[in-house]
Amino acid sequence: MKIGKHITIAIILSIAIIIAGAYYYANMSINPKSTPTIPGAITTATTGLSGSLTVAGSTTVLPLNQEWARLMMEANPDLRISVSGGGSGHGVKSVGAGEVDIGASSRDVKSSEMESYPDIEPVAIAMDSIALVVHPSNPITDMSTEDIAKIYAGEITNFKEVGGPDMKIDVYTREEGSGTRSSFEEQVLEKAEITIFGGALVKPSNGEMRAAVAGNDRGFAYLSLGYLDGAIKPLTVDGVEPSIDNVKSGSYSISRKLYLITKGAPSDLEQAFIDFALSNDGQAVVTDGGFISVK
Q: Cα–Cα distance between 233 and 225 in angstroms, integer?
């Protein structure tokens, strides 16, 4: 009788262990944070996600966010990610105010923004440089940092003053709140304000800046490295090409980090999006887009 009782207890314990194990592994499959990961080492294998995310901000980071969102939703049919632009200032303000889940910025968060939203947490997910561009027909190939600043200050108005053809310069700049503009002002204009009413034309995105110069042989603008194509011609600055290798080495100094920002510690879904951006597959999107991996 004692042997039979022991066998019965053993059977009950075995069944309990099987049920507990099944419950554990089932929960691992639906909760990506239950499986330890090494930052930057996960891939699109992260599945079982559901719910919704809103991401907004920098137009520089916009194409990266759109592609990351597409790939994540493709791997997770029950996941919905809404992505929009609006500029870096909008991204910081929106996430700080709790209007979106993740903000995107193509510049460092300002101290004044940290004072307004002390709980925001930026994470660098890529690097970028800012290139100065002209129309492909323009024979100019190089320009000094000093001359670039003088053009945006309205002191130089003709390409002949910088070794080019006798042709008026049509200057383009970004809107207030743009991370690209903020980084350009800090690194090239030494925080001097662009003379908007002195002739510079405002464009709302990197794409609009590129299109403006591509359609105007007198155009002159700055834009993200990831937006360069054959429709415009990038200039060397102080003799240095705005290439990925030169940014990595530090020889091309007009560079910046790109960020994703959460309000406080990220939720599971927010963390999953950031993890994917930093994964091997996510960083492949970065390099394929013409930007620079943070790895």
A: 12
Share of the chain above pLDDT 70, in %: 82
294 within a domain of the structure (yes/no)? no
Specify whether 180 is located in the same domain as 144.
yes
Q: Are 17 and 254 in contact (CB under 8 A)?
A: no
Q: Which amino acid is at 228?
A: L
Q: Which residue has the tokens 């101290």?
A: 111
Q: State pLDDT tens for residues 97-112.
A: 999 999 999 999 999 9
Residues 101 and 137 in one domain: no
Do residues 172 and 272 share a domain? no
- The pLDDT, as a whole number, for residue 253 is 85
- What CATH number is given to the structural domain containing 153? 3.40.190.10
Global pTM?
0.76
Kindly state whether residues 12 and 93 are assigned to the same domain: no
Instruction: Compute the residue count for the chain.
Output: 295
Alpha carbon distance 112, 190 (integer Å): 18
User: Do 90 and 142 fall within a single domain?
Assistant: no
Q: Domain span at residue 185?
A: 129-255
User: Residues near 17 by Cβ (< 8 Å), separated by ≥ 6?
Assistant: none
Q: Quick one: three-class SS letters along 116-149? A: HCCCEEEEEEEEEEEEEEECCCCCCCEECHHHHH
